[in-house]
Fold this sequence. Notes:
This is Aldo/keto reductase. It comes from Salinibacillus aidingensis. It holds the Pfam family Aldo_ket_red. By secondary structure, the chain is α/β, with parallel strands linked by helices. It has a single domain (about 5-320), classed as NADP-dependent oxidoreductase domain (TIM Barrel). The protein is built from 13 helices and ten strands. It has helices at about 20-25, 30-45, 60-70, 95-110, 125-130, 130-140, 155-160, 185-195, 225, 245-255, 265-275, 290-295, 305-320; strands at about 5, 10-15, 20, 50, 75-80, 115-120, 145-150, 170-175, 195-200, 280. The strands form two sheets. It has an eight-stranded parallel sheet, covered by helices on one side. It is globular and about 50 Å long.
Amino acid sequence: MNYRQLGNTDLKVSELSFGTWAIGGAWGKTSDKEALQALDVAMDAGVNFFDTADVYGDGHSEELLAKATKGKEDRIHIASKFCRAGDIHDPDNYSEEQVRTYLENTLKRLNRERLDLYQIHCPPMEILKDGKVFEVLDKLQEKGKIRYYGVSVETVEEGLLCLENPNVRTLQVIFNIFRQKPLEELLPKAKKQGVGILARVPLASGLLTGKFTKNHQFESDDHRRFNQNGEEFNVGETFAGLEFAKGVELSEKLSWIANNRENMTRAALRWILDQNEISCVIPGFKNIKQVEDNLGALSVPSFSTDEANQLKEFYRNEVHPHIRGAY
């Protein structure tokens, strides 16, 4: 396992880490037993960083992380997120009292006294512009409840605004072969300012695994079924903003990336790891097989300059025109 500095914090995190939305819920059937086994496999492989949120299974993913990391709290770093358990447009949802309540509940579920990284969970632009939530996070940091804080954003514009706050230490962004826009301005600027980057939705909700056909049917409790067109939350989140059938069509055109890289999953993750602005990539998982497959990205070849340029042109000409929503 390779480790990268998380921006200008004192944390070094495994370059391939994991997100825990899938084991919490809203990704189809899950098994706590399989999830805990998979977490053990990840940690045994050197993974020392996990991303979660209070709304992942209404806190269930946090509870699973507490069980998996018991006795390892000093060497396994955890990031969580807040705000989406309430009305994200209501300023009161970001008051000191409310944020402190969110944090205390998260710490209780994680069975920890302090959180390594606390992130605002995709807040609307007006909340970021107001900026009062950052003052609240400053106070929680001063009190020792959190080590660092950051923001999970939906758009490049939101990310650039967050960079104006010197105490924002990390940005979590949608970044994958289908969403390359952050490479133009956001990632270089974040790197220059010492802000860590967590790359989420790295496989475009599974499109970049190459496993789907246009007729694939997702389970009723899988957000890839009930949020395909942004019915429940941001349209740019599920399938990285692509309409599903178009996404499948585009992924088929990318099958070549698996050449000498075992499969598309590992190739897609490798492409992200090739970007030196990235602190870590956080794919999801539900079982040991998926953890091991994702970890395989660490040992496959990087993309050549010609291949990288080919992917850049592919994104610009064939993908970018079909992405929906702000991004």
